[in-house]
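# step 3/5: fold
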Amino acid sequence: MKRAVVVVLDGLRRDLLSAEATPGLARFSASAAFFAEHRSVFPSATRCVSASFATGCFPARHGLQGNSVALMEDGRLAVHDVGKPDFVDHWRAVRGRTLAVPTLAERLAGAGRRAMVFSNVSPGAARAHDPDGHGWVFHRACSFAPGPRRLEGEEAIADITLDTEGDTRLTSRFISQAVRGDAALSLLWLGEPDHAQHEAPLGSPAARAAIAGADACFSRVLEAVEQRRRLGEDILLIACSDHGHQTVTEVVDIDAALASAGLEEGVAVASNGTSALVYLHPDHAARADAILAFLRAQSWAGEVVAGEELGRIGQAPVDALLCAVSMRGDALPNEYGVPGRSAAVGPAQGKADRLGCGQHGGLNPFEQMPFLLIQGEGFTPGREMRVPSCVVDLAPTILRHLGLHHAGCDGRSLQNQE
């Protein structure tokens, strides 16, 4: 039986993999293909990446533009945190649907098979994999069976915490219920090292411990997969991350900056870490050029992408999206010698960016540096692949292994690439 197992170590940059820091992944790399030019999407943030992973499409196609977005409601733009448990339900109520293209869970259900997602990041990111209930989604805040049917009690996983201990417990549940079961796709999305890197400097003892803990969780999954293979199962095993991190050098309040210039009316700024999505109400379209000129003149704005040029970064000028801002960054090291720094956008949802700690979301090199290792048919063991790859390539790769068509994906299958 052909199956796919995926483990995501959230926020782990590929330049931080080593025999010392990630011994499990280092051993795995000897028998897997390593994609040395792998990239995230924009924003390079987990909720948006989850939707791109699930659909094989960029935000311009699937419609979930970022970790936070603005929706037109009752004639006004309202900014929402996609990570909240009920965002999917609100999004459906406002727009009449969720994602605009099918997910892996939906494609598998149509073929009579199931996807099982175990996630320890935000509940909104977990639900982005299967917002309409075609498979199983397990999260500490909300779990669903096909239908969707909300799970309660022992069926759910409410005892999981967002730390290494929680990842470890979730890995045990994942192995017993998913890897040892018969799901066509089994996905484990760990909360670390992303959580620790937001709370502590990159390269610090706390960050290194979180990386080691996530690596240990992967090693346990690898052992369980090898056991199933010995029983005759043909399993494609993927270890990857969704984005990297950069050190926060300053936190910028874009709303306040626009207000100081008298440009705030009709504008909604959705913070996405080291990037922002800037929306403009159609009634104020005549002010678009002035707003763009102001943003491009700011020292903290690394790149401002607007109009049809948004297609270059996987976005589109729809739903009142005026432009995307990737904050200024550089390659200088932090106190622990980890390179890559960036300004961050002040969040509007009550969260606090910490100076000197990690953040992501933009187009800077180190946040656009996730890792990807794939083991299975069509991948040469121990080979370093220089062919460019992206998060959107994972869905078609998984579908190909499972013998299903991947028409409609923006990405391509990675088997037998040169």
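# step 4/5: annotate
The chain has twelve helices and 22 strands.
# step 5/5: archive (pending)
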